[in-house]
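Our consortium's second objective concerns turning raw sequence data into structural hypotheses that experimental partners can test. To show how far this objective has progressed, the report includes one record in full. It was chosen at random from the queue rather than selected for favorable results. The single chain below, 249 residues long, was entered without modification.
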Amino acid sequence: MAIERLQKIIADRGYCSRRKAEEYITAGLVKVDGDTITTLGSKFDEDVRITIDNKVLEISTSAKKYYVFFKPRNVITTMSDPLHRKCVGDYFKRLDDRVFPVGRLDYDVSGLLIMTNDGEFANHVAHPRYNFYKTYQALIKGEVKSFQIKSLRTGVIIEDNYLAKAIDAKMVNYNKELGESIVTMVLNEGHKHHVKNMLAAADMELVKLQRTMVEDITLDGLKPGMYREFKAHEVKKFYGKIKSSKETK
């Protein structure tokens, strides 16, 4: 039996991404054969008994699944919520396979969220070093000026003195009657409140935010709360980019 890092075993069983598994481990929520493990470098047999928050983590025998989900606004990006608030998991209760979100969208942000039971896939797509492009559309109060758009491309300072740059940014439309602008941004990273902080740093007052694309995957044909499976060529293309990124590192 192969020996692997604990976070990789958890991801391979389709419970969550490796990065999320690391959070569970360091928080003391993961046990292996009854012993709490908090060291990220710990290695075990792939078939070891694992519990997370006292729930047994079954060895997955399911095929890998990938979904494009149109997350509505005012929905939490979790599979359950102890306070019984509306969450992403509520939309996937009828699935036979357990899936989880790749990355997250804020409670008040709508748009494209990838759902899967493939932990390694999720780890790669969510990690900024693999350069997966994510496109956002923002509704901004007032008329956005060209210098503000330029600042998003050249870089703005956000929290912790970090210089954040958009791969691309455009002013799409200005509605004079409503006094609102529509701006699009393309990023290949996504820290907490990253987009919101960039817009604020560019002196834009955000009204509403939506993620419209991940790479060339769109929300076409979907309404809020709906999802569809990835097509075979879409999965292949994502894995092709992962492989290419690894080879150039």
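The partners drew two points from this record. The chain has three domains: 3-56, 66-129+217-242, 133-214. The chain has a mean pLDDT of 90. Both points have been shared with the crystallography group to help prioritize constructs.
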